[in-house]
Design brief:
Blueprint (H helix, E strand, L loop, with lengths): L21 H25 L13 E7 L5 E7 L2 E7 L4 E7 L16 H19 L1
């Protein structure tokens, strides 16, 4: 009985598909990264993740009231006065000047007592009581 051997043709290896030159690959990756950064910045700005800039310690909006769809009356504190301003989409109008707001005294928070100082005072009181009774 003869066995018939089947001969399979050798698998021919095909060269890997070339995706382009390294220069094209690198420029494509850099373009994708730049687009991702711009998209992330837009999302951060759109949803308010960016810090608010332009705030000044010398000028502060202390009150605001909406009087229309795009109109507001605001009170702005400046070092020597308080300004009442009318703000619209196209302009800002000075309505009135108020005297400066009274300066409030801030109460400094009491520092928590140090444990070492509390123990020292407690021991001193105990020593004084013992010495006074003897």
């Amino acid at each position: 009985m003869k066995t018939q051997a089947t001969v399979q043709p050798a698998l021919q290896q095909q060269p890997a598909a070339s995706t382009g030159s390294p220069l094209v690959q690198v420029s494509g990756a850099l373009t994708a990264i730049i687009i991702f950064i711009l998209l992330a910045a837009w999302v951060a700005k759109r949803f308010g993740f960016t810090p608010k800039t332009g705030s000044s310690k010398e000028m502060k909006v202390s009150a605001s009231c909406s009087v229309g769809a795009r109109e507001r009356v605001v009170i702005v504190d400046v070092p020597d006065a308080r300004l009442v301003l009318g703000v619209t989409a196209g302009q800002i109008t000075h309505l009135h000047t108020l005297p400066p707001a009274p300066v409030r005294e801030t109460v400094s928070p009491v520092a928590p007592a140090d444990f070492r100082e509390l123990m020292k005072n407690s021991l001193m009181k105990n020593l004084l009581k013992r010495n006074g009774k003897d």
